[in-house]
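hey can u check if this looks right to u? its 488 residues, i copy pasted from the old doc so theres a chance i mangled smth
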Amino acid sequence: MRTSEYTIYTQIPNSDQYILLHSYTGAVDLVTSNVVEFLKDQEKNSESKTKNLVSDTTKKALIQRGYLTEMSVNQERERVKQIAEVLHRVGLKKKPNGFLFIPAYDCNFRCPYCVESWFTKGENWPRKRMTKEQVDLAYEAIEKIEPEDKSKRYKRHNLYGGEPLMAENFEIVKYIVDKGIERGNTFHAVTNAFDLEVFESLLGKGKIEALQITIDGPPGIHNKRRTHRDGIETFDKIADNISLALNKGVSVSVRMNIDKTNFDKIGVLAEIFETKGWTKYENFKSHVAAVHHMKESDEYLITSEENRFCGSDPENLFSRGKFAEEWIKEKYNREDLRKIGDNDGGLVNTFKSIFKNGSTFPFRSVFCSVGSGMYIFDPEGDIYSCWDTVGIKETCLGKYFPKLEFNEEILNRWQNRHIGNTPKCSECKYALFCGGGCEAFVYHKHGTLSESHCDGFPIGLKNYILLAYEQYLKEKETCNQILQKIDS
């Protein structure tokens, strides 16, 4: 009997208690340091020096929960591969396909960290837009790709770019939306919102129902980072358009792209959200996200066309794990930051639910919907799977214009990558939590999808678990206080 390689220990600060996770049984337990000391001793698979630290009942529970096992290391790894295979197979059958339209790669902003900046040759962004014929053929392709059972179809399509909601795109966006409405679809758009007022007639229930909009700080910071191609300041106009969208009942999620140059302005921006009155809307939320390079290397050249990543100084960037650590440290201590979301992939809410209901962790075999069937239609007539690799011909799944055809080899490469067939992931205790990392990161860094991408995930997971536990305890305390008042 030995301790499973897939046991994860997270110590609760200023406590002798740990949150114990098992990463293929899904068990989550609160234990004392004695249990952890016992398990760490058993990792050596030798005569235990700590056998009297835990009772026989506790040992039995540790076996039942998977923390102690008689399986070999290789048998455990095979178990993880089998779980991933089943999860992926079931996921492909059950998860609806996602569809995105890129009306144009053109953009009216010139943000220095843009992941698509490799498109540019100076100021010459691609000007080509989708045609109505292309939109018609894209919808025909969707009909062929979607399952026959309409109840299993995903009803919301996405608009992406470039900048999809740029004034010059209005006619083709209206055509895309109107045709989608005829099919019973609604829309979400990732937009800078600078020209959003032009699209007012397309905003609202049953049309463009949700928006992700980026604001990078108070006006002085934002205007330097979210720069218009004509040198126009953008903050005030975007703010007005957020108010416009909220008043029309559109769900607005404000994203703050954060690095070390604006990290200390998150609280100021949170105050602006309050002052603008946005936080009073049920359809408003916000979250932070770390700016990142798509390719991590000690040898990159930011000006090289071969390397496709943001143009920020790498010295100013966080790994995702380090960002989670710094961000949550701030969030613990500042009430004004509590209402801002974490861009944590749902980990905080998942663990809160586990602490509350005693459930197990819902595993994932893939990082995102790229691995379970996402299709992106661009103005060149091409189809892609990931919005961080659009325009890169080597990742093109096929074409929808002038006729639908797929490159089966590339399609299978993107849609059949999961942690079970990614060697490093199947040996990693965190794999079924992270899903193997972002496929785009993997591709940009390695030129293949057979590698993994961790980017500090273990650090991030630990911090999100602790944040979830803290929030759970506070909510439990609040609930008990309410019950006490009722009882009194």
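The chain has a mean pLDDT of 86.
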